[in-house]
TrEMBL record:
<protein>
    <recommendedName>
        <fullName>RNA polymerase sigma-70 region 2 domain-containing protein</fullName>
    </recommendedName>
</protein>
<dbReference type="InterPro" id="IPR013324">
    <property type="entry name" value="RNA_pol_sigma_r3/r4-like"/>
</dbReference>
<dbReference type="Pfam" id="PF04542">
    <property type="entry name" value="Sigma70_r2"/>
</dbReference>
<dbReference type="InterPro" id="IPR036388">
    <property type="entry name" value="WH-like_DNA-bd_sf"/>
</dbReference>
<dbReference type="InterPro" id="IPR013325">
    <property type="entry name" value="RNA_pol_sigma_r2"/>
</dbReference>
<dbReference type="GO" id="GO:0016987">
    <property type="term" value="F:sigma factor activity"/>
</dbReference>
<feature type="domain" description="RNA polymerase sigma-70 region 2">
    <location>
        <begin position="15"/>
        <end position="78"/>
    </location>
</feature>
<dbReference type="GO" id="GO:0006352">
    <property type="term" value="P:DNA-templated transcription initiation"/>
</dbReference>
<dbReference type="InterPro" id="IPR052704">
    <property type="entry name" value="ECF_Sigma-70_Domain"/>
</dbReference>
<dbReference type="InterPro" id="IPR014284">
    <property type="entry name" value="RNA_pol_sigma-70_dom"/>
</dbReference>
<dbReference type="InterPro" id="IPR007627">
    <property type="entry name" value="RNA_pol_sigma70_r2"/>
</dbReference>
Length: 249
C-alpha cells in the first residue's frame, strides 16, 4: 500500500530535503532533475519499512537517492549513446540510411571505442561494455570481478564519470604507442561486431596486459571467444599460483 507523500515521516524535515537535493545535484552534475529524483526517493520510502532511528532513515533515503541518480545517468546514456550505435555498425544499417549517414555513425562509434580504450584499464573497459551494451547485471559483474553488487554499481559510476571528464584524443587509436590500448580497441570492436561478450568476460576475469595481447592474437584472421577465454583464464590461474608461491616464501 502506498501512502500519500504528505504522510511520509521525513517529508516535513526541510533541512534533510535540502541536503538530499544538494547531493542529487552533485551526483548528477546539474540540478534540473535533482528535485524530481528526491521526490522519487521519498515515494520509494513510502512503500518500504524504514529503520526505526532517524539517522537510519536518513541513510536509507541517501542510499535510495544515490541508486536513482546512477540509474538516471545510465538511462540518459551520457556515454552509452555512442557505444550503443556500434550494435548496428556491422552491415545492419537501417533501411533508408544514406552512405554518408552510415559513415558518420561508424566514425562516432570508432571515436567512442577509442576513447574508452585510451581512458580506462582493460578490466574497467570490459565492465562498461558488459553493462552498457550487453546488459550484464551488477550481480553478474561483481561475481566475475570479486566485488559486491553495491561495489560494482559504485565502480561503474566512477568509470562513467571518468569517461565524461576526460577529453577525447583527436588521433586514431591505431596510431597510439600504447599497444594495450590498440589491443583493447580491437577487442571491443570485435565484441560489438559479433555480438559476443566472451572476450570481454575473459578480460574482466584476467585483467592483465598479457591477457589482452593473448586475446587479440588468439585466432589469426578472426577472434575465437572460447579459445581467448581459455588463454585469459590460464594467465589468471598462473598469476594466482605465483602469488601463492610468493606468500609461501
Amino acid at each position: 500500500m502506498t501512502f500519500p507523500l504528505s504522510a511520509h515521516p521525513l517529508v516535513t524535515d526541510d533541512a534533510l530535503r535540502r541536503r538530499l537535493i544538494a547531493l542529487a545535484r552533485r551526483w548528477l552534475a546539474h540540478g534540473a532533475e535533482a528535485e524530481d529524483l528526491v521526490h522519487d526517493a521519498y515515494l520509494r520510502a513510502a512503500d518500504a519499512e524504514l529503520p526505526p532511528a532517524g539517522s537510519g532513515r536518513e541513510a536509507w533515503l541517501v542510499t535510495v537517492l544515490h541508486h536513482l541518480c546512477i540509474d538516471f545517468l545510465r538511462r540518459q546514456g551520457r556515454y552509452k549513446a555512442l557505444l550503443a550505435q556500434a550494435a548496428e555498425e556491422t552491415g545492419h544499417a537501417l533501411d533508408g540510411d544514406s552512405p554518408r549517414h552510415q559513415v558518420d555513425r561508424a566514425l562516432r562509434v570508432e571515436a567512442a571505442l577509442a576513447h574508452l580504450s585510451r581512458t580506462l584499464a582493460p578490466g574497467d573497459a570490459a565492465v562498461v561494455m558488459l553493462y552498457e551494451i550487453f546488459e550484464f547485471t551488477h550481480a553478474e559483474l561483481g561475481a566475475m570481478a570479486g566485488r559486491s553488487e553495491d561495489a560494482s554499481r559504485q565502480h561503474l559510476h566512477r568509470l562513467l564519470r571518468r569517461l565524461r571528464a576526460t577529453p577525447p584524443a583527436p588521433r586514431r587509436v591505431e596510431d597510439d604507442e600504447d599497444e594495450d590500448a590498440v589491443y583493447l580497441f580491437a577487442l571491443c570492436r570485435h565484441a560489438l561486431a559479433q555480438r559476443d561478450p566472451g572476450g570481454l568476460i575473459a578480460v574482466l576475469r584476467a585483467s592483465t596486459p598479457q591477457a589482452i595481447a593473448s586475446l587479440a592474437n588468439a585466432a589469426p584472421g578472426g577472434w575465437a571467444s572460447t579459445q581467448a577465454m581459455a588463454v585469459a583464464d590460464s594467465l589468471h590461474q598462473n598469476s594466482l599460483s605465483q602469488s601463492c608461491l610468493l606468500q609461501g616464501n
